[in-house]
Design a protein that fits this description.
Blueprint: H1 4-7, H2 12-18, H3 21-32, H4 34-70, E1 76-79, E2 86-89, E3 102-105, H5 117-125, E4 130-145, E5 148-157, H6 159-165, E6 172-175, E7 183-187, H7 188-194, E8 201-205, E9 211-220, H8 225-230, E10 231-235, H9 236-242, E11 251-256, H10 262-273, E12 276-279, H11 280-283, H12 285-323, H13 325-333, H14 338-374, H15 390-407, H16 409-416, H17 420-425
Helix pairs in contact: 3-14, 4-12, 4-14, 4-15, 12-14, 12-15, 12-16, 14-15, 14-16
Length: about 425
């Protein structure tokens, strides 16, 4: 059967053999209302472009923030248990009353090693979520050079493991990220305060009287002035000897394959071992709250833009049903079923969503390229790297098409329910 709509098209019989009738009518309706079609495709394109641009921008921004936070720390840090309070009785000389009181004395927190840390490290390393486990020893010390002295923080590490957690090679300003038996890495602020350069010697003394002389092999910049003024890195055995903790460690640093699983894994470690495990999510709670707020804001923006797109498509199709009511009545009188009428308008909604999404993805991609070129650091480098994922564009296309179908459902039902006689009479 050839309808009046399809018979007016050039080579209609040839096209009809290859294109289903519902597609043929839907395309004809869209072409006849080309002004409305262009406006709604433009509206959908702007909405999808905003969603693509904002999603990629916020994802890149969050990834950059997380990278900056985690570039100088582990995802999880295991620490020995803290000293607990002791209950001491009052002096016997004061105990001549019938009432005997107690004094709760706050204990001094002293550096101590994690018990059986080697077996604990092996147990944690066997977890599928864990990437690297690195032992470390930390404590305070004093360095003196001429008439200048500075209090520093000694961090003893195994470079083969720790540098997989904190990429020190990327943070070096002078020298190299290498610590052998008597090497020490220092921050830029400490080097400036003490007038040190690579190759100079530095004597380090701890509170217990131990001392050692190290050779400055590199100067680093952690991006924090206070950290650069205090932090030093030495081999783990040298730190153990200086701090009087031979064979012991004060922390186990852990990195995971999924950084956002840190709190879950930390709780699991504490449950299984009883060791205090602090995740980066817990220690940077305010930052993580800000990241979640950004994610929520991005979701809200996408939701409201999607709603505006849906209402735009629905309003255009409602107008189209009114304008095409006579044609719909003729088609129904010629034997076209209600389901076919329904499919025609659903196809229009899906095509409007898909067409707008294709244009919108292009607009979003171009906007991201322009933004990366326009927004630069003072040195001309890219402000932060953004990975434009193909999955983002695919998701935008699918969601826009589905939104178009959903938005067109009510107008399609109205078109399918039209009485042919009433529709023809107008």
């Amino acid at each position: 059967m050839v309808s009046p709509v399809s018979s007016t098209l050039p080579n209609a019989s040839a096209i009809a053999r290859w294109i289903p009738f519902e597609w043929l009518v839907a395309l004809r309706f869209l072409r006849e209302g080309r002004v409305q079609t262009l406006f709604i495709v433009g509206g959908v394109a702007i909405g999808v472009g905003v969603i693509v641009f904002m999603s990629a921008l916020l994802s890149g921004l969050q990834a950059n923030f997380v990278k900056r936070v985690l570039t100088g720390q582990a995802h999880i840090q295991l620490l020995p248990p803290k000293e607990v309070s002791r209950v001491l009785p009052l002096d016997v000389a004061l105990a001549d009353t019938t009432q005997r009181d107690n004094i709760v004395q706050a204990p001094l927190q002293r550096a101590k090693s994690i018990d059986q840390w080697q077996s604990l490290a092996n147990q944690i390393q066997s977890m599928p979520q864990v990437a690297v486990v690195s032992p470390s020893v930390s404590g305070s010390a004093l360095v003196v050079r001429g008439a200048t002295s500075r209090a520093i923080s000694i961090l003893g590490v195994d470079p083969d493991l720790y540098f997989k957690i904190v990429p020190m090679a990327e943070k070096m300003t002078h020298g190299k990220a290498s610590i052998t038996v008597n090497d020490i890495l220092i921050g830029t602020e400490l080097a400036t305060d003490l007038g040190l350069t690579v190759g100079d010697k530095l004597r380090v003394t701890t509170a217990n009287g131990n001392a050692n002389t190290f050779l400055v092999s590199g100067i680093f910049d952690l991006g924090n002035k206070s950290a650069n003024a205090r932090t030093t890195m030495v081999p783990i055995r040298a730190a153990q000897s200086l701090l009087g903790m031979v064979g012991g460690v004060t922390a186990l640093d852990v990195t995971l394959h999924d950084v956002y699983a840190a709190e879950t894994v930390a709780q699991r470690i504490t449950t299984q071992t009883g060791i205090q495990a602090d995740s980066w999510i817990k220690t940077n709670e305010q930052f993580f709250t800000a990241v979640n707020a950004q994610t929520t804001a991005n979701t809200a923006i996408r939701m409201f833009v999607g709603l505006s797109v849906a209402f735009g498509i629905a309003s255009v199709l409602v107008v189209s049903v009114v304008q095409k009511s006579r044609e719909i009545g003729i088609l129904r009188a010629m034997g076209i079923t209600r389901s076919q009428i329904l499919q025609i308008f659903l196809l229009q909604g899906g095509l409007l969503g898909l067409g707008g999404a294709l244009v919108g993805c292009t607009l979003g991609w171009v906007g991201l390229l322009i933004w990366q070129q326009a927004e630069r650091n003072p040195d001309g480098s890219v402000m932060f790297a953004m990975s434009i994922e193909p999955s983002l564009f695919l998701a935008a296309l699918v969601l826009a098409s589905i939104t178009g179908l959903i938005a067109s459902f009510a107008p399609a039902l109205r078109a399918a329910s039209l009485d042919p006689v009433v529709a023809i009479r107008g």
